[in-house]
Amino acid sequence: SLVLQQTALHVLVGAFTWPLAILKLGQLIDAPWSVGLVRAKRAGKLLAEVLAQRAHGKRPITLVGYSLGALAIFTCLQELHHRKAYGIVDSAVLLGMPADGANRESWSACCHCVARRVVVGYSKKDWVLAFLFRASSFCAHLAGLSGVDADRIFADKPLVRRKLVNLDLAEIVDQHSDYLSRMGDIMLEVSRML
Question: Rounded distance, CA 62 to CA 144, Å?
Fold first, then answer.
């Protein structure tokens, strides 16, 4: 009987050991990820300030970013819209971005600030983004995993639907770090959208 109890206890403890280890690992990652999200948004506001001052001259620019860099650009475009600073950004390319893909107000602001296109590159295979973003946001539609459903959220705004383009990169991007290592292939696909 004692052997049976120890065996049952051993099985029970073993069943919880791996999930607890994974949760602990998640806690170690969540704090730096949360700091990164805050800093990316702050960097986006600073970028908007610099762009609004036209430090780059009068020519429109194209902004390209992946992961937290894409979030910085997304925040920058919203801030430019808030400042009514139009005509600065020609196109924006947001790859593997950790942001809500169903936020109508944010995406509308971005599209109004961009003269030509907002390309949203995503990969359903990006399990790293899914893992990192799971606890830091309550959105059900992550842009970096499934793009933006422009036809649904902008049914009444054809101009926004025309500007907002989804690019499924699942054939190129198997994991989050592939955005950086396969940037040449990704930009070739993006160039077909611009």
Answer: 19
Q: Return d(Cα 121, Cα 139) in angstroms, integer.
A: 18
This prediction's pTM? 0.82
Dist CA 139 CA 42 (whole Å): 21
Question: Is the per-residue pLDDT at 22 higher than 80?
Answer: no
Residues 110/118, Cβ–Cβ less than 8 Å: yes
Distance CA 45, CA 61 (A): 17
**DSSP state for residue 61 in the 8-state scheme:** E
Cα separation values, 110 from 19, 71, 79, 136, 182, Å: 40, 12, 9, 22, 26
Beta bridge partners of 91: 62, 117
In 3-state terms, what secondary structure has residue 119?
strand
CB atoms within 10 A of CB 90: 15
Q: What is the pLDDT of residue 141?
A: 82
Smallest CA-to-CA distance from 51 within 25, 70, 78, 24 is with 78
